[in-house]
Amino acid sequence: MRIITGGIVHETSTFTLVPTTWQSYHDRFYLTGDDIITTFRGTNTPPGGFIEAAEAHGFELIPTLFAEAHPSGPTPRPIFDAMVDELLRRTRAAGKVDGVLLELHGSMVVDDLDTDAGIDDPEGYLLAAVRAVVGPDVPIVAQLDIHSNVSPKMVEMADVLIGRETYPEIDQAERGRECGDVLNQILREGLRPTMAISLIPMIWGLHQVTAHRPMRDAIDYLHEVEARAGVVCGSIAVSYFLADVPYMGSSVYVVTDDDPALAQKYADELAAWCWERRADWHYELPTTRAAIRHVQQTKQFPVVFADTRDNSGGGAPGDSTGMLRTFIEEGLEDACLLYIVDRAAIAACTAAGVGATLTLAIGAKSSPLQGEPIEMTVEVMALSDGRFFYDGPMYAGLEGRMGPSAYVRQGRIHVVLVSIGEQPYCTAFARSLGLDPKKMRYIGVKSTAHFRAGFEAWAGSVQLVDEPSLHNMGKLPFKRLGRQVYPL
């Protein structure tokens, strides 16, 4: 069996000031041909799962293009068109194929939304383009992020969509393997997938961590539906609320074996259950200062403070200073912050060298909404080109690239400065600089939940906090939803 594989992956914030360029893709992944197999083999990623499935089922995997940028603003149309053209060119060059395995995100947006040149459903567009090349009878199976804004066109153009079931998303290879297993059922066992979607006019709030209730209850219900007769698989998409597009919102999509009515029935059932509990998915966040007061009373150390609004993993600039300012004003000791994006400060550290002491204006260079730069007199503890390997469980075995980076210290407050915005999935990068967060009493991260994969197991407590950022949900100027979406 000859199987095409590839993907164009991007989580797009239409509210961020962080641009998406060709370099954005090359900074993360822009791979063609066999480089895709070499890069992802044995990694906890969807392509890693595709490779595992191909080897198990005897597929000949034909890699085309895999492009992914860190979360940021909309991808310009010329860049998107060039990537699609390359993927389609390689697909045509492969000749007759038996199936397609794609990784997509489900929350990509292409510029310019104010003109006819923009695309607010790039995944649907790409699936339709691939369908036009391979024909109506070749099965297309795609793996999606849990934070997807799934459109009816995506459901129409793919035979099967499979979303991740964990957050933090530690099941990426597992879901990729599932895609390959389902494709094998279609090709060799006579499975005839029928897929239906139920759209929920709702932004899923911060209760998304699948290891904890109430989100655990939703995943348990999903698994109960998946275990029913005739059901192949199902998924809950919790939405990506930073994309101002018509299909922004949560959804449930279910695949059955040759029974579209049953797929719709179960999708509607689970969607109604989620909607009835819409208030349960939301809660208010304290400031860092209030969270510090709480932890100093409970003594649950070490404590991880998560700055959810300035999460560069959601496209935020990653340079807000509210948490750092509070750490300094509270006189914390044995405290670290991962990470602040600040290329200018890194350049100054690089020029000064390891061991130098210098005064820097750190952070808040992207927007006044990110706070004000903080003057710090720091010692340069380490410098790096930003290359390291994740040690999991998220992205285990995959190389990470933070760009030129610096580890600085003022007293007993430690800060890691990076050039490329990325949330800390584990402690591997900090340790590569000589900073072990496990030895800290207070750990600040710019992340919403993915940090839990590498931090929660050893943390005494976790505190999600709210600091000023251009991604504060209550202040976002939505214009294109076209309908009411709870709780806006």
Describe the protein.
There is one protein chain. The protein is α/β, with parallel strands linked by helices and 488 residues long. The protein folds into two domains: 2-281, no CATH class; 288-465, no CATH class. The chain has helices spanning 22-28, 34-40, 46-57, 77-93, 122-134, 152-157, 172-188, 215-226, 260-276, 288-298, 322-329, 343-352, 428-432, 452-455; strands at residues 2-9, 29-32, 60-68, 99-103, 140-144, 160-163, 193-200, 231-237, 250-257, 303-307, 335-341, 357-362, 374-384, 387-389, 399-401, 405-410, 413-418, 442-445, 461-465. Strands 12-13-16-17-11-18-10-19 form an eight-stranded mixed beta sheet. Strands 2-3-1-4-5-6 form a six-stranded mixed beta sheet, with helices on both faces. Helix 5 links the parallel strand 4 (99-103) and strand 5. The radius of gyration is 22 Å and the shape is globular. It starts with a strand and ends in a 23-residue tail after the last strand.
Distance between the termini: 48 Å
Q: What is the residue-mean pLDDT, rounded to a whole number?
A: 96
The dominant shape is globular
* Biggest sheet, spatial arrangement of strands: 12-13-16-17-11-18-10-19
- Beta-strand percent range: 15-25%
- Radius of gyration equals 22 Å
SS field, number of helical segments: 14
Largest pleated sheet: 8 strands, mixed
Structural class: alpha/beta
Helix amount:
25-40%
Count of spatially separate domains: 2
- How many strands appear in the DSSP assignment? 19
The low-confidence runs, each spanning 5 or more residues with pLDDT under 50, are none
